[in-house]
Prior knowledge:
The structure is a single chain. It is built from 8 helices and 10 strands. By secondary structure, the protein is an alpha/beta fold. A 10-stranded mixed sheet has the order 3-2-1-4-5-10-9-6-7-8, with helices on both faces. The chain is elongated, with a radius of gyration of 22 Å. 39% of the residues are buried.
Amino acid sequence: MKILLAIDLSDHSNEAAQFVGRLPSANELEVSLVTVVNPPEMGIHSSTEMWYPEFLDHQREVVEAKHREIATMLESVGAKVSSHMLHGHIGGEVVHFAETSAVDWIVLGATGHSTIGRLLLGSVSDYVATHAKCSVLVLRPKTLVGGQMMKVSAAYDHSSSAEKILAELGKRRWPAGASLQLITAVSPVMVYRDDLFPSAQEEERLRRAEAERIATEAATRITNFDAGVEVDVVEGDHTGHAIVSAADNFHSQLLVVGDKGHSLFERLMLGSTSRYVLHHAHQSVLVVR
Length: 289
């Protein structure tokens, strides 16, 4: 598995590296450490010519020291590590490197700040998650720390996007004791006449039963979570909010969504829903492509 690990100089980078190093298949990983330096824009004149080269040299030294620290951490668990310092638009450079290097996952922090500039702030994470062609794991601080059983939630709606989620979950090795929650959201049937209310209730019951049947069948195909898989059918006017609430109730540390898709029940994992989850989830979020 090839991972692009976006690095700044914050503690979030260390936490992201620690998560990657704790993956059960860490000794099979190829990890590219990538830092994008975005120097301040300024005109070149006699005053800047004196200190600007020294400024760039200092940036390079600090980045190289951080990369050595994280590389040592990852190499100690058997991962193969390479180091890359890029210049330019931060999100664009990360996405371009991932595409040209054919990585499987981009891993980056939801927030971050470093002395070399704003790197992994929300705008960058949003850009990468939106534009990357590969899967993107956006880590929120303190959600995937060691010493606790991993609980994973995944949005499922029987679309092609949801099937990619099942494939991703099924082929990865998860930590011992990990459990999975499959969330299927069903929109309520809105009626405005009392005489239609009984029919609407029956329609909702049928929708819920069909959604649960499909999700339960999907759950039988996931066998690599030691603590098992459970199905949670939820209802709500806002699909994204219903998914986030269900994941919170499950106390998951990771919430998995698709890039886009739709189902017979309702629009579930379109870009708008995935983006809502990305912005509002309290867990780390994996966007599967």
